[in-house]
Amino acid sequence: SYYTSKEKFKEWFTKYVELKEMVPYRDNSSSLPDIKKEENVVQEINLDNIEKEDGKVNIYFFWGDGCPHCEHEMEFLESIKEEYGKYYNLYMFETWKDKENAELLSVFANAMNDKVTGVPYTIIGSLSFKGFGESKKNSFLEAIESQSKNNYDVYLDKIKK
């Protein structure tokens, strides 16, 4: 009987799982995760200030506050910063609580010809990655190294034009 209506299913389901209400979108004053401010991590996004540096790739990281996969990717990016930070600039966009960033995710995904239904979503040069896990770590490192030699930037070369 709990499959016959949304309310009956919710009544049955909440016996086993606590449902939390979705937090509405906030303005851009929402804080970013606890990642130290370094020169290769840009925390306050102003798309007019994005530029391509020789020998570096821009990484566009779309994430959601509370997403465990996003948190895992943040920890990974933090752990490689010392060794690989000279190869990239990181631009982070929280999409679950920031409507403008959610719309920006769609713009970037369309420019990459990707259908994106969730986060994390990461663009490294001309390569894009949906999701994150242990199996993607080497692919990320290879992408950072190879794309830092590539002049392609999805924002500057495709979106901004």
Could you characterize the architecture of this molecule?
The chain is of the alpha/beta class and 161 residues long. It has helices at residues 6-13, 68-84, 99-111, 137-147, 154-159, and strands at 41-42, 57-63, 88-94, 121-124, 127-130. It has a 5-stranded mixed sheet, with helices on both faces. Helix 2 (68-84) links the parallel strand 2 and strand 3.
Short description:
With 161 residues, this protein is an alpha/beta fold.
Q: Rg, please?
A: 18 Å
> What coarse outline follows from CA principal-axis ratios?
elongated
| pLDDT averaged over residues | 81
The main β sheet shows up as:
5 strands, mixed
What distance separates the N and C termini? 55 Å
Topology order in helix (H) and strand (E) letters? HEEHEHEEHH
What helical percentage do the residues reach? 25-40%
Tell me the strand order in the biggest sheet. 1-3-2-4-5
Low-pLDDT segments, ≥5 res: 22-45
Question: Quick one: how many beta strands?
Answer: 5
Q: State the helix count.
A: 5
Find the structural class using helix and strand composition: alpha/beta
Task: Name the beta content range.
Answer: 5-15%
